[in-house]
Amino acid sequence: VCVLVGGVGGAKLAHGLAALLPPENLAVVVNTGDDFTHYGLAISPDLDTVMYTLAGVVDTANGWGVGGDTAHMLDMLRAYGETPWFRLGDRDLATHLLRTQALAAGEPLSRVTARLARALGVGPALIPMTDDPVHTVVETREWGALAFQEYFVRHRWQPTVTAIHYEGIERARLSEPAAQAIAGADVLVIAPSNPWLSIGPIVALPGFRTVWAASSAPKIAVTPIVAGAAIKGPAAKLMGELGIEVSAPAVGAIYREWVTGFVYDEQDSAFTLDGVETRALSTVMKTDADRAALAGAVLGWAAERSAHPVG
Ligand code: FO1
């Protein structure tokens, strides 16, 4: 199984899949458009969120960072007169130090990511969408162009978004490990991450469309919008600002060209999507059991579809 994920929401479904599958049967392809350099450190928030979640060490209250981490480094920055807006924990810092050192020595992001994940005991393959620099830029009415973390964390995704673009995407390529994971998968899953900020960069990568289209595996996306709202993060607000109806059918229409099946939440009313089967499941994951249940239901549906491939 290969699942495309962004941050916290996607990490939950990846965690559910990891609970059900032998580690060698799961590959997680992660968005790196949120990556940025902060105090000289190479930060990959979505990779770290998925890694810590699959390693069972994530801060469960936030969904990111290391559980029980301390903030002495941040305190020392303040002692120097800094006002740190991006909360880097002391344990989390080790990840950024080693990644920064490896990238500076010329090691590809996919290689250092695999090394760190293995060291933390993560079984499934943790794969960056690309080894090339891609930066999601959010155009806002109030502040102009903002780097992703400036928009998401510093401004708490409150600015009004007028456009989004992925800087560097034309010169980037889907990473080789990601291409192999997609080509080799019996089931392809798009996790309930933000379609524009998390899944968008992955599907926009040169090389993605070809390898995705070449697969005859069931391709199932899970809605990040339930009852007209996002579970977490700016997806609903963003859709409103981009003039898109804030609903599961609207997300389904965006994913239509990429998937064979679309999962919406049982709270929402049934709808059809031409050429794509839709299915109502319980998609809100509050507990680990919810995560495994949703993962199991998605895999179960894929198994049905594999038995009777449509078209
Ligand atoms: N998100 C926040 O809202 N505030 C933070 O201070 C913050 C720090 C942070 C540090 C490391 C890391 O890996 C993630 C962190 N995040 C923080 C989450 C991150 O900005 C977002 O979850 C993703 O980029 C969006 O998917």
Outline:
With about 300 residues, the chain is α/β, with parallel strands linked by helices. It has helices at about 10-20, 45-55, 70-80, 90-105, 110-120, 150-155, 175-185, 195-205, 210-215, 235-240, 250-255, 290-305, and strands spanning about 1-5, 25-30, 35-40, 40-45, 125-130, 135-140, 145, 160-165, 190, 220, 225, 230, 260-265, 275-280.
Description:
This protein is α/β, with parallel strands linked by helices and 311 residues long. It has helices at 8-20, 45-55, 72-79, 90-104, 109-119, 148-154, 176-183, 195-204, 208-214, 235-241, 248-255, 288-307, and strands spanning 2-5, 27-30, 36-38, 41-43, 125-128, 135-140, 144-147, 161-167, 188-190, 219-222, 225-226, 229-230, 261-265, 277-281. The strands form 4 sheets. A 7-stranded parallel sheet has the order 5-2-1-9-10-13-14, sandwiched between helices. Helix 1 runs parallel beside helix 2 (45-55) and helix 1 (8-20) crosses helix 12 (288-307). The protein has 12 helices and 14 strands. Ligand FO1 is lined by residues 6-8, 34, 45-46, 48-49, 64-65, 86-88, 92, 149, 152-153.
Secondary structure layout:
Blueprint: E1 2-5, H1 8-20, E2 27-30, E3 36-38, E4 41-43, H2 45-55, H3 72-79, H4 90-104, H5 109-119, E5 125-128, E6 135-140, E7 144-147, H6 148-154, E8 161-167, H7 176-183, E9 188-190, H8 195-204, H9 208-214, E10 219-222, E11 225-226, E12 229-230, H10 235-241, H11 248-255, E13 261-265, E14 277-281, H12 288-307
Parallel strand pairs: 1-2, 1-9, 2-5, 9-10, 10-13, 13-14
Antiparallel strand pairs: 3-4, 6-7, 6-8, 11-12
Helix pairs in contact: 1-2, 1-12, 4-5
Bound molecules: ligand FO1.
